[in-house]
Specification:
Pfam families: Scramblase. This protein has 282 residues and is α+β, with helices and mostly antiparallel strands. The chain has one domain: Tubby Protein, Chain A (Alpha-Beta Barrel). Helices cover 24% and strands 33% of the residues. It has 9 helices and 14 strands. It is globular.
């Protein structure tokens, strides 16, 4: 763990909650997230670096009509996110690796300022088996003071199992839970299949520029918005592993719920869009 980031993380030990920053996302309707290019690691898989992201505020219309790579590149970040993980874990565990991530207010293009959120993802070797999922993927979210806001957990309940059995390769759900463990939202990842009209087939590529993830209400039926991974262009996709994402927040979501959805964005980003060494090597 890098010393400066370790110091910032430790500085967030639990303290009396004062909610000084929790409202930063209150006026935000949508965000754009751009992963910083790490070109060197494309040519040296053993040198997998810690991911770094810029997070900018955007108009919700950008979710319906995603921006192109130039717009993502020109974005002025409101926040930055820095992964903190071990080198061996990145190399051997790939996209399933454990990490901590500090989301801070941006003090510059790639400069972190005041800490805002802290994400923590444990290593999970997920094994779906009938109606039980062993070690589902999960991520916890804390505010800058160390207060637990909630978590994001891969959902494999009996109903989800039967839905996937009836529509093979169709959907995967992630429950966005509050501090008390109660579901606030669900993210529905749609795999290309005949059951869903081959949605997300060849995405995100030049053939289908956006991979779409649905944001659903706590009943997991009411559609509230989208998270999209947008094709970054040939240069970014061919030279390096880099993601461009855009997400719209539900209009009635509280600042804490928006923070949880931002955490869900990063879990989905790692599980589905982070390249492993096998991807890079062949």
């Amino acid at each position: 763990m890098q010393a400066p980031l370790q110091a910032q993380w430790n500085a967030g030990a639990p303290a009396p909650y004062q909610s000084p920053q929790s409202d930063l996302l209150a006026p935000v309707q949508a965000v754009m997230v751009r992963q910083k290019l790490q070109i060197f690691e494309q040519f040296c898989p053993a040198c997998e670096k810690q991911n770094f992201y810029r997070i900018g505020v955007c108009d919700p219309s950008k979710v319906s009509h995603p921006p192109d790579g130039n717009e993502f590149n020109a974005m002025q970040p409101s926040f930055v996110a820095q992964e903190d993980s071990e080198c061996l874990c990145r190399f051997f565990c790939g996209k399933m690796r454990e990490f901590r991530m500090l989301i801070s207010e941006a003090a510059g293009l790639d400069a972190p300022g005041q800490p805002y959120l802290r994400l923590e993802r444990p290593f999970r070797c997920t094994i779906p088996c009938c109606c039980v999922m062993v070690c589902p993927q999960e991520l916890s979210v804390q505010d800058a003071q160390g207060r637990h806001l909630g978590s994001v957990v891969q959902d494999w309940s009996c109903g989800r199992c039967w839905e996937l059995a009836c529509c093979p390769g169709g959907y995967m759900y992630y429950a966005v839970k509050g501090a008390a463990g109660d579901p606030q939202f669900y993210l529905r990842v749609m795999y290309p299949s005949l059951c869903n009209g081959c949605t997300n087939c060849c995405a995100p590529t030049c053939l289908n520029t956006a991979f779409v993830v649905d944001i659903l209400d706590a009943d997991s039926r009411t559609h509230l918005g989208h998270l999209k991974n947008v094709f970054p262009g040939f240069n970014c996709r061919c030279l390096a592993d880099a993601s461009n994402l855009v997400m719209g927040f539900p209009s009635k979501a509280t600042p804490e719920q928006r923070a949880l959805l931002l955490g869900a964005l990063f879990l989905v980003e790692y599980v589905y869009f982070e390249k492993s060494d096998n991807d890079n090597s062949g």
